[in-house]
Fold this sequence. Notes:
Order of helices and strands: HHHHHHHEEHHH
Distance between the termini: 89 Å
Structural class: mainly alpha
Strand order of the largest sheet: 1-2
Helix content: 55-70%
Bound molecules: protoporphyrin IX containing FE
CATH topology: 3 helical TM bundles of succinate and fumarate reductases
Strand content: under 5%
CATH architecture: Up-down Bundle
Amino acid sequence: MTNILKAxxxxxxxxxxASPLLRFYRSSLGKKLITGATGLALAAFxxxxxxxxxxxxxxxxxxxxxxxxxxxLGVPFYAFELxxxxxxxxxxxxxxxxxxxKRQARPxxxxxxxxxxxxxxxxxxxxxxxxxxxxxxxxxxxxxRAFKFGPYYTTQLGGEPVRDLARLVIEDFHQLPYVVGYSVxxxxxxxxxxxxxxxxxxxxxxxxxxxxxxxxxxxxVLGSGIAIGFLLLPWAIYLGLVS
Length: 243
Ligand code: HEM
């Protein structure tokens, strides 16, 4: 008689219970909270980044001094960059999961959106979040290659050698394809923020029902404001207003 050793089956050994953190991540509520909180953190970064960029409208030195100040922070700066990367990846991963879940739950052929009473907040922005988000993720790879990991020019600032980021940005935005490409991306960013901002506030429970219309309008204004703030620099450079 042959002695057959059976591999332990999934039935005989139940898998260990998922940790509370994993269960939170897997739940619908957890996913909404994660996309909401990471989305708001990214919006805060984008706003700060836009304001920092405007320094190049003041002078090359002001811009380079700002970049050096940030880089001289050392370890806290590198920790911030790592955290930013983690937040971007988490936001994208959970966003994609939510999109797939909604798609699978939708009956086949369902293509029109109807409000279940009350004002509908379905817009072209809300329906294209996956598209605008994906394009921006691809843009980020291009953007970091062009600037962060782009040519390393140096200049003197207060008698010290520093990276001449101002020169790099000015060189790039003297080219029309860059300016037009950034303009398209910033239009998509405005659309993503228009829906993302108020929806994030709603997801993390900060929106009282009565405040919804106001938050909805404020998101559109802030989203467009951030995009316009970013756009000032490429166009000012291209039109020869920054040298
Ligand atoms: C006209 C528009 C923009 C300009 C001129 C610009 C410029 C720059 C520059 C020069 C850097 C490199 C900074 C350094 O190495 O110290 C940078 C980094 C970065 N930019 Fe932009 N940027 C623009 C728009 C955007 C937008 C729309 C986003 C996001 C949607 C974005 C996200 C980032 C990120 C994540 C980094 C890396 C930050 C870090 O590692 O510290 N940028 N940008």
